[in-house]
Write a structure and sequence with these properties.
Elements lengths: L3 H7 L1 H10 L4 E3 L9 H9 L3 E6 L7 H6 L5 E4 L15 H9 L6 E4 L5 H15 L5 E3 L6
Parallel strand pairs: 1-2, 2-3, 3-4, 4-5
Helix pairs in contact: 2-3, 5-6
Length: about 140
């Protein structure tokens, strides 16, 4: 995961060639809007790197569009705000996952605010129930990175 500015500064071609050289298969650029990713996505694809899309609770009408164009996996953002610990996750994760699943078979990983083993287990059960394939996941405790 990185922001767009370092990738831009390094140069798209040089950056993704280096990613390929060191064995990176996918990258998340959270400040790159889905509607503006084409230029970066083409260069990344030339080097076999998947540009991972994120779907946030605010995506609503964009969920299908983002899911249809997804590569690698989808990062499903579980809650609004900054990353870190949440007492409760109140987002309609099941609804988001069902919407994604209706248009895509790309694996999904739910993250952002998942901090405890119980939260991770619950999100894992939800993803497994809706996708029923093994290549899905839960992203936890990213604030320790």
């Amino acid at each position: 995961m990185t922001y767009l500015n370092p990738v831009f500064h390094y140069g798209y071609e040089a950056f993704f060639e280096r990613c390929q050289d060191v064995g990176i298969d996918g990258i998340i650029i959270p400040d790159l809007p889905f509607e503006e990713k084409e230029e970066v996505d083409v260069v990344a694809g030339n080097y076999g790197i998947d540009l991972i899309s994120m779907i946030a609770p605010t995506s609503k009408e964009r969920i299908r569009k983002i899911a249809k164009g997804a590569k690698g996996f989808l990062y499903v953002v579980s809650s609004m705000g900054v990353t870190g610990e949440r007492t409760n996750i109140t987002t309609d994760i099941d609804g988001m996952l069902k919407e994604i699943r209706s248009v895509s078979n790309v694996p999904a990983a739910v993250g952002f605010g998942i901090h405890t083993p119980d939260q991770a287990a619950e999100m894992g059960r939800r993803v497994k129930k809706i996708f029923s394939i093994r290549k899905n996941g839960v992203i936890i405790f990213s604030n320790s990175i």
